[in-house]
Amino acid sequence: MAHQWRGVIREYADRLPVTEATKVITLGEGGTPLVHAQKLSELTGSEVYLKVEGMNPTGSFKDRGMTMAMTAAVEAGAKAVVCASTGNTSASAAAYATAAGLKCAVLVPEGKISMGKLSQAIAHGATLLQVDGNFDNCLDIARKLGESYPVFLVNSVNPARIQGQKTGAFEVVDSLGDAPDIHVLPVGNAGNISAYWKGYKEYAAPFETSNGTLPAVSTKTPTMWGFQAAGAAPFVAGHPITEPDTIATAIRIGNPASWDTAVAARDESGGLIEAVTDDEILDAHRWLSSKEGVFVEPGSAAGVAGLIKKHAAGQVPSGKTIVITVTGHGLKDPQWALRTEDGSDVQPVKVPNDVVTVAAELGLEEN
Ligand SMILES: *Cc1c(COP(=O)(O)O)cnc(C)c1O
């Protein structure tokens, strides 16, 4: 019988804070494809791979952390969970809370939140409140609720989330046989860059478990390259941004919760965190769908936008192995694919129910 992927907790149990007695809440997250990006590889002269996180159960990498956070919530005896979200965290929290039998409250910012993500939270029965403020304000409230009210916080300030998300790095190394030379990803609240760096470091050294020491799996760690949207780039500015603005809603965050760990990931790895414009993000979004066959949401394309930008500046080495995490599925936010250069919506060409006209429309000649 074919091996069935068991979700990140069971697959990496010896490297996560769980025990035999832990009741695992899972929807089978992780085990996502590492796709060879042919055109990006041709462009750069390096072997470029995409870690396609849109293939997770709710369509983003958030599920890796949410399986751990929800498992921890159940272990702690919680009856309800809360999160602030630009969209994907709420979709994931709502689904995993349902699987765990817990109530879920979600705080989303005013304006700009994708219909796809909203529909997920609603479908899974979360109580959704739109706060008159931005994501950072929502996270503030969620943290205070977690401190002073009987609800369990499942944002990435919860260390269980980072524990789960570090499995992305494990999977990359398990697929490639070693760590890549460079790992590229979008940066918003900065939990994911922190989690990948933690995962890569743990795989590159002996690891202590309750049953003994596991040997190192990889011979090295990658250089971490993070990319923010230019209108929401606090790491580039060196301080929080009060009015973050970008079409890439998943990374529209001005005051990242995981500031110190993200800076450590950047500096310890000899890496960088830079900015890309919304136009560069949308170009990369189009590149992925039209050249590589991978459909992502705009925020997910920030890493690819960054790689293309660094290549144009002559700063991407050739002959290396480069992995880019593309963080969420294109179907979350499909409007961007349906927009033409002039801003109008793409309309399908209408044809009669007749093979000759259809063939002519397709430019086909009868053989
Ligand atoms: C959450 C999210 C990000 C940002 O990740 P952080 O851990 O907040 O830096 C990027 N892309 C997508 C699709 C996301 O859902």
From TrEMBL:
Its cofactor is pyridoxal 5'-phosphate. CDD domains: Thr-synth_1. Residues 25-328 form the Tryptophan synthase beta chain-like PALP domain. Keywords: Amino-acid biosynthesis, Lyase, Pyridoxal phosphate, Threonine biosynthesis. SUPFAM superfamilies: Tryptophan synthase beta subunit-like PLP-dependent enzymes. The keyword Aminoacyl-tRNA synthetase does not apply. It is an enzyme of class 4 (lyase). Its EC number is 4.2.3.1. InterPro entries: Cys_Synth/Cystath_Beta-Synth, Ser/Thr_deHydtase_PyrdxlP-BS, Thr_synthase-like, Thr_Synthase_bac/arc, TrpB-like_PALP, TrpB-like_PALP_sf. Pathway: Amino-acid biosynthesis; L-threonine biosynthesis; L-threonine from L-aspartate: step 5/5. The keyword Membrane does not apply. It catalyses: O-phospho-L-homoserine + H2O = L-threonine + phosphate. GO terms for molecular function: threonine synthase activity. PROSITE patterns: DEHYDRATASE_SER_THR. NCBIfam families: thrC. Belongs to the threonine synthase family. Catalyzes the gamma-elimination of phosphate from L-phosphohomoserine and the beta-addition of water to produce L-threonine. This is Threonine synthase. It comes from Paenarthrobacter histidinolovorans.
